[in-house]
Amino acid sequence: MQVHRDTSTAWEVGLWTLANNTSRFHATAVAPRTKEHKDMAGGIEPFKPEYPHEDLGEIASLSPDGEEPTEEERHTLRKVSDKLPWAAFIICIIELCERFTYYGLSGPFQNYIENSYGGRVPGAIGLGQTGATGLTDFFQFWCYVCPVFGAIVSDQYLGKYWTIFYSALIYILGNLILFLTSLPVAIENGASLGGLITAMIIIGIGTGGIKSNVSPLIAEQYQNTSQFVKTLKSGERVIVDPGKTIQRIYSIFYMMINIGSLSSIATTELEANIGFWPAYLLPFLMFLVGFAVLVAGKSKYKVRAPAGSVIPKACKIMWIALMNKGNWNAAKPEYQEEFASGKKYNLKWDGIFVEEVKRALVACKVFCFFPIYWVVYSQMLNNFISQAGQMQLHGIPNDLMQNWDPITIIIFIPIIDYFFYPALGKLGFQMKPITRITLGFMFGAGAMAYAAGVQKLIYKTGPCYDAPGACEAGLLPDGTYAPNNVHVAIQAPAYLLIGLSEIFASITGLEYAFTKAPASMKSFIMSLFLLTSAFGSALGIALSPTAVDPKLLWMYVGLCIACFIAGVLFWVIYSKYNDTEEEMNELERYTAKPKSVEQADEEKAAAAEAPAREKSISE
């Protein structure tokens, strides 16, 4: 038998080596070895700097308040969050308004697309459950692809604030189109489907530019990067930890997102009792409020100037490391000066940036399992709504039930952040990121298991059993069909489990994307995390043919098994990164931060004045 050699194998091995050489991290630049002591790979060995108080003779001493902790204190004192800057709360209000708009618009989408105009359940287009699920999955996919483009524009050209500003204007246009084409006269004349698709595309572009930038912008309002000791009023000595502060910022940020998402309570009631046009007008008006806050608060934000061609630099670093069999040191200027032979690269970065890119690759590896989680999460936005429509609603709109998810998050975030995590900390157990994300996957699997149980109960109950709303026995005198005799309230725990899964998986994902990204690439790495949701939506589109009776039961069972296995594999593969979490975060202390907009403007003005100044001196 003739064996054909796969020419891609060398590349695959190289990529695998590159990805797996990120397991150890060091907090600073590297020191060149002498050529006599050069290692076999020809690299240079990274080293960690001398931290204050790390000398063994000083361990017994106590650090005064405001000073960095000793090594002993790092292991014995409890870590707490710092105070949060007011600018962060202003940005939270902006995000609340944007999410109010997004969820207020998308909440009625399933009914708007699935049901026909004038039926028992509100509707406009009449594409059925499969068509509605596919179109809503497309919308989610598009909304999470666009952040990549928004991030590139932000990190290289406009900066975060101006990217958010122009994206908001695009968003406003999409809102206006959706509102106008949802008016009764537009629906009756067949304009609703074309208007919806156009609005979805435009809104996706707008929300993409906002999503990839608003979450890094809020965390950047907190400037401290070093731990320090503080004595509480109770007399307890603690370490104020930037990592804990960022964790709290994102917990509050996510809580604001979910307060905004309660807009679907109002819009689904408007949809059920008046029509779709007021359901889309309310979010439109709320977005205008958020835009006004964005503009009014501009002077309060700490805004960094774009860093230029930083993304191509990062790609070049990864290419050099790949070409050197995963040796990241080869991409450092110190290596080029000391050891490089043959082809030398013109390097326009320092060794710290190489370490940052290496750390960012860890985050990208961790993100790989998230698409499976997002498929599970997205069931709440489409198939759970349809499932509620198969049960006795008792006057409750079927798309109102999804609000149990944000209610769960709003209630449990303060409990978990202010009580659960600190209680574990006092017991000596730190809930590090990989642990939290794994727990989120387990809660997601539990939600799918519960949804499968609810679907089985629906199929076992009359009048239509495994064909709810589609049998002669359920036909009503008005020509509509009665749902099966199951109370819709039984669905609520599925939303509770999804909400808990978000607290552990989604919030931690945002935090991980920010803390592991290079300072000049925060938006881009955040967009890659958001892109995992787009892949999840693509998987959801592929699964949409199974979103029909009587296949729904097995769809939920399959998602439960997939999410559970993904969580187990996630822990097995990535739990090692819990051990290097603080070491990776220490790198932020030694990073050159991008200039503020004011500093960049001053440098440009000085550069513009320099020729005239030189000319006057020469004269």
UniProtKB/TrEMBL annotation:
Residues 589-619 are annotated as: Disordered. Keywords: Membrane, Transmembrane, Transmembrane helix, Transport. It comes from the Eukaryota. One of its GO terms (molecular function) is dipeptide transmembrane transporter activity. It holds the Pfam family PTR2. It is found in: Membrane. The chain crosses the membrane at residues 165-187, 193-210, 249-268, 274-296, 360-377, 407-424, 436-453, 494-514, 526-547, 553-574. It is a multi-pass membrane protein. PROSITE patterns: PTR2_1, PTR2_2. The keyword DNA-binding does not apply. One of its GO terms (cellular component) is plasma membrane. InterPro entries: MFS_trans_sf (IPR036259), POT_fam (IPR000109), PTR2_symporter_CS (IPR018456). The keyword Transport applies. Belongs to the major facilitator superfamily. Proton-dependent oligopeptide transporter (POT/PTR) (TC 2.A.17) family. This is Peptide transport protein PTR2. The lineage of its organism: Eukaryota, Fungi, Dikarya, Ascomycota, Pezizomycotina.
